[in-house]
Amino acid sequence: MFGKILIANRGEIACRVMETARDMGVRTVAVYSDADAGARHVALADQAVHIGGSAPAQSYLRGDVIIQAALETGAEAIHPGYGFLSENPEFVEAVEAAGLVFIGPSAAAIRAMGLKDAAKVLMIEAGVPVVPGYHGKNQDAAFLAKEAAAIGWPVLIKAVAGGGGKGMRLVEASEGFSDALESARSEALAAFGNADVLIEKYVTAPRHIEVQVFGDGVEAVHLFERDCSLQRRHQKVIEEAPAPGMTADVRAAMGAAAVKAAKAIGYAGAGTIEFIVDGSGGLRTDGFWFMEMNTRLQVEHPVTEAITGVDLVEWQLRVAAGEGLPAVQEQLTIQGHSFEARLYAEDVPAGFLPATGRLAHLSFPEFARADTGVRGGDEISPWYDPMIAKLTTHGATREIALAKLERALSATQVAGLVTNLAFLKALTRHAGFKRGEVDTGLIGRDLAALTVEPIACSRTRSLAALGFAGLAEDTSTEMGFALWERVPQEVAFTYRDEIVAVRVTSLGAGRFDVSIADTTHNVEQKGDQWWIDGQKTGAQIMRFGDALSVFFGNTYVFEAIDPLARGGQEGPAGDIVFAPMPGLVKAVFVEAGAKVVQGERLAILEAMKMEHSLLATRDGEIAEVFVASGDQVVAGAPLIALVEEAGEA
Description:
alpha+beta, 34% strand, 42 strands, eight-stranded antiparallel β-sheet, 17 helices
């Protein structure tokens, strides 16, 4: 076994590899960019080497610098993780030329599967079923249109290089083929430097089922299948193993085909054979076709580990160190069911836009496996994929494993930036998904319902009020009493740009009446638990500067009202809205002469990668707007003025 390995990657996969290496007594070397100097994978490693700037091209894609780091630190092998250089055959050859071991397949195997068209020709020769289509070299537009018509509509245009849905277009009829072809080629050229495409028959009720394979260069086994049909824009969201509705004969047929594919290229290490499957009318032995092979460890490998009890990274290290396959096919069995959900920093209502910023707080439940490369206080930078973590659950049945995933997502706490947490929870509650009725179009069909953001109820707002009032931290003494009378405390904060006014009355240590409009809740803190109206909630309240998060099944974020934006100020200062901090004016919603009411949003200021709403200090008329969208302002700069009220000096 190796004494020391270098991980040529970052984030959660680098941490994942390090954890297994540590358990095996293998020392690890991390590499890091400028942006990752304080990253979790750097902290976990025994040694760490700086390799360049924040952009991947300046660091994680610099194979020569990474190899030099391995040599200088005495590492004997390099684990590529996934992404970056993991499927680059030139990097594999350079690693081996330097006298190091590449923990993965050979350069020849990677090349054999690197281009989809060539890979499918190879699979046909190996006897692996392939989707009907054209995978040849002729890229003439008229010729491709003729081939598409011969295959039969609908068809899928796919870039021969790369993946992730780039260079892929669905064409329903001949009239749309020409424009779709031009668009797919343009996107493929920009993304992969290769505009060539292939044409395939489009399966109308498609499922994405992949088989985990593992080889030692001669022999190969499969570790059963994963269903990755729950996708959005060809990106996986939730994966599971085994596939729902799978039968013994179909599993055997798919497993045998996957092993054929691996053995055909002398595959060594962990790999995945991806199949497109016709999900209409149930799974059948003649209803699956080879799509592509990923010649690396997959993001979703934890679900396979959960149902087989196999540590795939351990297998990778053992085979790369010269051992044979750790198990034969007959020794591998399925135990229970597993799900994995990908938690991202992204703004779901804004169209799943990637989000960046500081993770003020991050916590996962102990009963779920959490693979992550970040901690509370870390930055989600714009340089890399905004994945925060992968949450994996396992249960005796699919129903139990899915219920545990929903519970795990409810117990996950993230503060400081927006995430897709609520979206993932909505998926776990989707009636069709719960029944196992999965296909790649499920999310698209029900996107509107799945992306409805949860709204904080009055109970949640009551807890927020206690947090802003400073009553959620110390309940050891009697508070809020004067001359033995209960004295109410007025609290105001904002939620989704609206002012929430609350009256809090202390009834004793840790006991409160909280009134919002016409609703009053009795709130009590018992130990570390909050009870509302006699019911235990499991909620938690956390303050992060001007923001406050209530974790109550979902994550709800509230903002303190900046003193400059509050009403009731005396004198001219109440007529002017100032910039509370330096920042960028993102939007201005009013102009001179406009009538406004107290609390109405006038503008948005972006500062510290967060947006801050600036509110009207009182009812009135806008006298003057001093800034425009796109202006950079300093702290204290006047932004908007209201007409002076009558009687003011």
